[in-house]
Amino acid sequence: MIPVYNKNADTELLELGNRRLTKPQKVSVSKYGMVSTAHYRATELAFDVLNAGGNAMDAAVTAAFALGVCEPAASGLGGQTMMLFYDAQSRKKIALDGSSRAPHRIVPGESNKSELLRGYNASTVPSTPAVLAYALKNYGSLTLKDVLGPVVDLAKKGYEISQLQYDLTKRELKHLRNNTAAPLFLKKGKHPYPVGSLFKQEKLAGTLERMATAGIEDFYLGDIAQMIKADMIANDGLIQADDLAQIPWPVERRPLTTSFENTRVFTMCPPGAGRVLIAMLNILSQFSPKQRDPDTPRGALLLANVIRQTNLDRQDRPIEPNLYHQIDNEHMGRPEYAQRNAKKIKKKLKGKGETTHLSVVDRYGNAVSLTQSIERVYGSFCASAELGFLYNNYMSAFEYNDITHPYYLRPNAVPWASVSPTIFFRGRKPWLVIGSPGSERIASTIIQVLLRLDKHSPYEAVAAPRLFCSLKGKVSLEASRMRDDITDMLASKGFEIDVRDPYSFYLGCVQMIMRSRRGEYIGVADPRRDGSAKGPRL
Asked: Looking at the keywords, is Cell division present (predicted)?
């Protein structure tokens, strides 16, 4: 039964009492492709595309737009999108850097992070519409109108509010009520929509419909741009017409790569955080499989040390590819780095965002790993009443103090990103398409799934308990599903323990596709959120 949160619920809500929420399919198998996303309605739309013969990019773009509808607190038109794409015909691996941009009117040195955490000044110039349109045009086979049609229908007809969405809205209720997103995302502008209620978004549907007809440029140069400008002026926001007019088209870059065991890894280059993933894999390769087993106390201790060290090094060695070509991009990927840090960690062992992800593979062998976000849950908490989408709060993802820092806040700068959409190859074919939301926890989440795949089924590897170690040595973990001596070991080595829920929203949400030895695609959607996996049946 659906939980009752309001004893004075109206008749409409009482009628929902006997309905059951859809239970998303978390595991799927198909020989003809696969899609796994963080919301089952987005999976369904992308599945329809694959089933009708569309390619991986067609399905990925469809799912990405759909996630902006049914996971609005995590991503949407007001955010940014990064992806890794494998073209089976040319065998090219392409990283699409879809960074958003700081507005031109920001004055360096005159703001601090707390001032730009929420509100209209918290938003960078959204890049998601430009990135998805570019990817579809250059690597898809469908038109924008084809892709957006079913997404518009989803926004108009609505979807059921899940327990997770209710909980997140309740958690952020104060900030929502204090900002312009309240009328759009709260019932009567005051309360969370109850679990199981149908949430429709007419204004967002209208925005999507306009883009389908007028093209994505309308978002940056046309009527939508004018409405964004008017909304910003009315609320003293920074983004203006000239910011939007410099459309943030994505930059095609070479993915970062390394080898691990019998796989070749391709992951997101800066400003993404794929180099953290590369560094973790290289350090872990210095240890035996038994030593790096995350389900043992010493394996968990090793993992905590590796996570902390690599994130510290990323913090110390920032790279912004548009401005800092002279810096050695490969430092954290070099063998000497891994060997030096492995020795350091071995001594220790002897001694004392919100974001969404989707993965797609098609029958032709193409693959997409895509991560997109509006930064924190509900982004800036601001939205135009006429357009229906949330503005991001990526202005909080800049450096505010060190003027020499590559990500120092300045006009037209790109923010830090922690995304790591990744594809592992065995031989010449993709073996694992994977990614996760979770800010700085993304790389470590992927690592833990990978380490478990040798011993566990794909679903078990994704569902297994996780941990994360902060820069200051706080280990967050799903302790109730782990051996209790793991917590004891970490505490005895000086780590602060932060016990999280058994299936914690905080510790990532993996959407994964694995190719089996029989050539089948196994899709897995993380049980921590509302996702599902589904593959064509031809």
From this structure: no
